[in-house]
Design goal:
single chain; Fic-like fold; 4 strands; 5% strand
Length: 368
């Protein structure tokens, strides 16, 4: 079976939007609601919500590629570049620093036209310092760029990108297409999630770099969404993709064999809408956290504060399995008796809500 770029109609993507009209309306509705929520928050809480989503995007985008980033290091990188640290903080991970730098560049430069140098700059942010890769330039060499899995001696090839000699021309055409389909362009695509879906598939089909294609492709999708909204989009696309990682790769693989990309567009639009819903939950969660500490902080000891902060770090999805005495002991170093007493006190205050009973009792965060 041939790949999409080998077919005579490449890259003239065809798609039908029947069946996703409601989702496109839902995206616009949720985007407006999240923007309204942020505008209604005090400045410090709005900044916190925005940071949480940017950090999640950087961490989850790398996780999709099998790389683990330190959340605190990414946060320091982003805060440094947004001028939120009075004194710039050192970031001890080049990879985390680069991921944070990319998030800020995408957010602050969303309105700018795409260029070859922009993509090279993003690539350098992610991979500067690598001694084995060509950084800040298109891939080179005679071997085909393949996405494979399985045994080394009998690999399964999921996709093969265009040969290296075609990449400069393909990318020149991609960049021109990206700018032409932007709002106000001669071939503008009016639905931001649809354009975002096509951007991602088109870029990943070319796979122009030796490494970093997935992360840059998702950054381009975010840029497309922001351009469509006329403001930086408030969501973590990679968080939603990571939650559906298996279907993400399956959808990409299916789309790589045809330029009728209706199924891919429908799948991707659904992920974008879910990401926008999740962003609304995150903003509301930040407000909930602020109210919680306003109500309870003065009544909690250091151990209890450490625990509830750790539970809030888990985000809107909640602390996995809830809190119990065993976890409390592990996280604070307290004795089992002290842990039980502290947890019961938190429940009496309403800071935590007990679930179950006896030895199986676990606790969830209460409402402020």
């Amino acid at each position: 079976m041939t790949y999409n770029w080998q077919q005579p109609d490449w890259p003239k993507f065809r798609y039908e939007l029947n069946g996703v009209a409601d989702q496109l309306l839902a995206f616009a509705d949720h985007a407006g609601r999240v923007s309204g929520l942020l505008e209604g928050l005090p400045e410090d809480l709005g900044t916190e919500a925005m940071l949480d989503l940017m950090i999640a995007e950087a961490v989850r985008s790398s996780a999709i590629e099998g790389e683990t980033l330190n959340r605190d290091a990414v946060m320091s990188s982003i805060r440094n570049r947004l001028g939120l640290n009075p004194v710039p903080q050192p970031v001890d991970s080049r990879m985390a620093d680069g991921a944070g730098e990319l998030m800020v560049a995408v957010r602050t430069g969303f309105h700018e036209p795409l260029s070859e140098e922009t993509l090279f700059s993003w690539h350098r942010m992610l991979l500067e310092g690598s001694t084995t890769l060509r950084v800040g330039g298109w891939r080179e060499g005679g071997d085909p760029m393949q996405v494979v899995s399985g045994r080394i001696d009998r690999p399964t090839v999921h996709f093969e990108a265009p040969p290296c000699e075609r990449v400069p021309g393909e990318m020149a055409r991609f960049i021109a297409w990206f700018n032409a389909t932007a709002p106000g362009g001669p071939k503008a695509i009016p639905q931001p999630p649809v354009r975002s879906a096509l951007v991602h598939l088109y870029f990943e089909s070319i796979h122009p770099f030796e490494d970093g294609n997935g992360r840059i492709g998702r950054a381009l999708s975010e840029k497309a969404l922001s351009q469509g909204l006329g403001r930086p989009v408030v969501l973590s696309l990679s968080r939603s993709i990571d939650a559906a990682r298996s279907s993400y790769y399956s959808a990409l693989k299916a789309a790589s064999h045809s330029n009728d990309v209706t199924s891919w567009v429908h799948w991707f639009v659904g992920v974008v809408v879910q990401a926008q819903r999740d962003a609304g939950d995150q903003v509301r969660f930040v407000l909930r956290k602020s109210k919680f500490f306003q109500r309870f902080e003065s009544e909690l000891n250091e151990r209890q504060l450490k625990i509830v902060r750790r539970m809030f770090e888990a985000g809107p999805d909640g602390f996995t399995g809830g809190m119990n005495a065993r976890k409390y002991v592990a996280l604070t170093g307290a004795s089992k008796a002290t842990a039980t007493r502290d947890l019961q006190h938190l429940a009496q205050l309403g800071a935590l809500v007990p679930l179950g009973g006896g030895r199986s009792t676990r606790y969830e965060l209460g409402e402020p």
